């Protein structure tokens, strides 16, 4: 278990460096992340490289007995690059990115890729074997702030080349996209446009899906290029990159991207900007489990909130004890390395309001002592369990093609959510809601890519929003259920194939026999609540309401809303299939209703659960020496977890003998 901080010595004076490292080490930190925004520093003019600054800093880090993670500084580039090669600039939604911000790069640009390749090569040659260096972070938050999509002419040229490679002929492309619709049949590759901003009707859904896949492949190739250089010139150092909330904000297939890397990192900010309260704790847990699940192993939090954050505006100030709680939650959910963002708050630049461990001065803050105490408290336990596998009998499954599909065709306005203009994260929010019902019942739960998961390790699989189906995955699920597993399917299951064509069978398509139902009618209700009933217990749902037609399934819940013509019709069913069963949920349930449903499913499958109120999270971890029962109070008040009284923001770790 390691703790560290994100450090920017280039933003301070040489008189600060030794004192800074001493302060960090006294706090209990042993790792610093460096250099991820330093391209202009190391290559001030094209081809003129100077890494002496970072060599000196690495020497100093080593003298303090600390270690370093170096970032390849390709997330932003020096003005000379854009001035000499304007085609390196990205265009998003009609706006050309410019020098002065970050993540400006067109990943399709040969000039940018060549410049980045040269930079990473020279950096690895100069610093890659330094004894203080333990790891590389490739780029920084790659694809964030809308930089995953590029509508530039350079991107269009590359998109057409990608399509040629994939389809070989325009005949195959037209057939796959269904281009005959509206008569948009291409007979020249140069006729294919960028599916970007439009006045009215959108582009072909199959075309948009390919445009997203093209961008994902382009970013994956960019990371792979850097990884190959670093493995050759900096042997023995681990490779990662840092992701960010929310899981499916970018169109990038992160599971594919991390095949080229050694471990997953992400940036954990439970509150940001003008939020008036933090994200609910289950939503933070699902982010941890998403990142843990990409490689199904322990992960790093490369930027763990240590103050409160924002660029232009600020909001919620974490209460005393809450920052250390979030750190401990990360470790409990699978992190084995925590780096705090940032060591000291910047006095100038765009992140003056991103408060770190220290403020703009060097006086030790309450946050410093809180985190120092929190590290000392959890370290003896974390050393035992943090790098061990995270046990779970339940998994929620996600799918990148479906995430992309619901960005441009959400079906219901209730599945549209754009907190900022470049984001459509309705899929993310819905997936988190399905996960949250299990988390609030304190069930250890994995969150995994459907195509990667070993289904037979779990008693229960939950598969929401699986509209675009993969035949191989459906077959594996059929084998899983037949052998005794429990599958929970969500609404819109089995509607499309992976080319984006609606199947010529009613929902749930290939799941029809397994689920024992048929769906020919549904209503998109947005956020408007619709009433239904579990036995005698009332519930509410929204977004999409399917009218289920049982064939072999038994009814578990029916609509009771007097305003709806489908009052009395089934909304949730249960079907026996082989030795297992399938629960089909024909609507988006509100959180309490999800909890009621999961209680029944968990009991039937023999999976234990508990409920200690909306603010208590219990997690079970297995260590090398002992097992652990961990209670986290996410409330600023005293609460009870059974007979245990938890103080505000307390984390209680109870060691158990290994059975």
Report on this structure.
- This protein is of the alpha/beta class.
- The protein has 17 helices and 26 strands.
- The strands form 5 sheets. The chain has a 10-stranded mixed sheet with strand order 13-12-14-15-20-19-18-16-17-21. The protein has a 9-stranded parallel sheet with strand order 7-6-3-2-1-11-10-9-8, with helices on one face. Strands 22-23-26 form a 3-stranded antiparallel sheet, covered by helices on one side.
- A hairpin with a 2-residue loop joins β16 and β17.
- α8 crosses α13 and α10 (281-295) crosses α14.
Structure, briefly:
The protein is of the alpha/beta class and 659 residues long.
> How many domains is the backbone divided into?
3
Strand order of the largest sheet: 13-12-14-15-20-19-18-16-17-21
- Report on the biggest sheet: 10 strands, mixed
State the CATH topology of the largest domain: TIM Barrel
Low-confidence stretches: none
**What's the name of the CATH homologous superfamily of the largest domain?**
Glycosidases
Counting helices, strands and paired strands, the structural category is alpha/beta
Spatial shape: globular
Q: Strand fraction band? A: 15-25%
* Mean pLDDT score: 97
Query: Which radius of gyration do the C-alpha atoms yield?
Result: 26 Å
* CATH class category of the largest domain: Alpha Beta
> What is the helix tally?
17
Total E-strand runs: 26
Q: What's the architecture of the largest domain in CATH terms?
A: Alpha-Beta Barrel
Pfam families: Glyco_hydro_42 (PF02449), Glyco_hydro_42M (PF08532)
Family: Belongs to the glycosyl hydrolase 42 family.
GO molecular function: beta-galactosidase activity; metal ion binding
Catalytic activity: Hydrolysis of terminal non-reducing beta-D-galactose residues in beta-D-galactosides
């Amino acid at each position: 278990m390691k703790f560290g901080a994100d450090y920017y010595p280039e933003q301070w004076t040489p008189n600060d460096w030794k004192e800074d490292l001493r302060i960090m080490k006294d706090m209990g930190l042993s790792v610093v992340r460096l250099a991820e925004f330093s391209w202009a520093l190391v290559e001030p003019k094209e081809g003129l490289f100077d890494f002496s600054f970072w060599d000196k800093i690495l020497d100093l880090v080593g003298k303090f007995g600390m270690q370093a993670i170096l970032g390849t500084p390709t997330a932003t580039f020096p003005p000379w690059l854009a001035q000499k090669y304007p085609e390196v600039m990205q265009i998003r939604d009609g706006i050309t990115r410019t020098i002065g911000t970050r993540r400006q790069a067109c990943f399709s640009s040969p000039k940018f890729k060549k410049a980045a390749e040269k930079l990473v090569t020279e950096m690895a040659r100069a610093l890659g074997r330094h004894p203080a260096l333990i790891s590389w972070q490739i780029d920084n938050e790659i694809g964030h702030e809308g930089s995953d999509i590029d509508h530039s002419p350079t991107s269009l040229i590359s998109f057409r080349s990608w399509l040629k490679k994939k389809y070989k002929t325009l005949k195959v492309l037209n057939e796959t996209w269904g281009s005959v619709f509206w008569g948009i049949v291409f007979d020249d590759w140069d006729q294919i446009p960028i599916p970007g901003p439009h006045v009215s009707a959108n582009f072909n859904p199959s075309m948009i899906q390919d445009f997203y896949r093209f961008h994902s492949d382009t970013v994956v190739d960019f990371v792979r290029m850097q990884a190959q250089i670093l493995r050759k010139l900096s042997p023995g150092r681990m490779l990662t990159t840092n992701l960010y909330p929310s899981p499916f904000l970018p169109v990038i297939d992160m599971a594919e991207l991390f095949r080229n890397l050694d471990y997953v990192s992400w940036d954990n900010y439970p509150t940001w900007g003008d939020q008036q309260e933090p994200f609910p704790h289950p939503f933070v847990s699902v982010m941890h489990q998403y990142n843990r699940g990409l490689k199904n192993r322990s992960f790093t939090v490369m930027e763990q909130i240590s103050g409160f954050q924002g660029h232009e505006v600020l909001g919620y100030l974490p209460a005393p004890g809450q920052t250390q709680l979030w750190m401990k939650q990360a470790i409990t959910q699978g992190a084995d390395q925590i780096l705090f963002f940032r060591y000291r708050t910047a006095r100038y630049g765009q992140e003056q309001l991103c408060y770190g461990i220290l403020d703009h001065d060097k006086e030790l803050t309450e946050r410093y002592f809180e985190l120092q105490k929190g590290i000392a408290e959890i370290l003896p336990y974390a050393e035992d369990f943090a790098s061990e596998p995270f046990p779970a009998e339940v998994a929620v499954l996600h799918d990148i093609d479906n995430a992309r599909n619901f960005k441009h065709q959400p079906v219901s306005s209730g599945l549209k959510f754009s907190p900022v203009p470049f984001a459509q994260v309705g899929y993310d929010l819905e997936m988190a809601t399905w996960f949250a019902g299990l988390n609030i019942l304190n069930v250890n739960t994995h969150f995994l890519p459907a195509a990667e998961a070993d289904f037979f390790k779990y008693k229960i699989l939950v598969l929401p929003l699986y509209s675009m189906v993969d035949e191989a995955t459906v077959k594996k699920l059929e084998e899983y259920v037949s052998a005794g597993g429990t599958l929970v399917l969500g609404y819109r299951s089995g509607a499309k194939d992976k080319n984006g064509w609606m199947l010529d069978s009613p929902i749930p398509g290939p799941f029809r026999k397994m689920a024992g139902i048929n769906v020919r009618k549904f209503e998109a209700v947005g956020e408007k609540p619709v009433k239904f009933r579990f036995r005698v217990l009332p519930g509410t749902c929204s977004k999409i309401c399917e009218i289920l037609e049982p064939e072999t399934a038994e009814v578990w819940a029916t609509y009771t809303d007097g305003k709806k013509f489908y009052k009395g019709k089934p909304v949730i069913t249960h079907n026996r299939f082989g030795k297992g069963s399938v629960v089909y949920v024909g609507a988006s349930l509100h959180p309490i209703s999800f909890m009621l449903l999961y209680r029944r499913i968990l009991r039937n499958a023999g999976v234990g659960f508990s409920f200690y109120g909306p603010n208590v999270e219990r997690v079970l971890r297995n260590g090398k020496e002992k097992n652990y029962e961990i209670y986290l109070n996410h409330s600023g008040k005293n609460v009870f977890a059974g007979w245990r009284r938890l103080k505000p923001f307390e984390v209680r770790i109870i060691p158990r003998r290994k059975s």
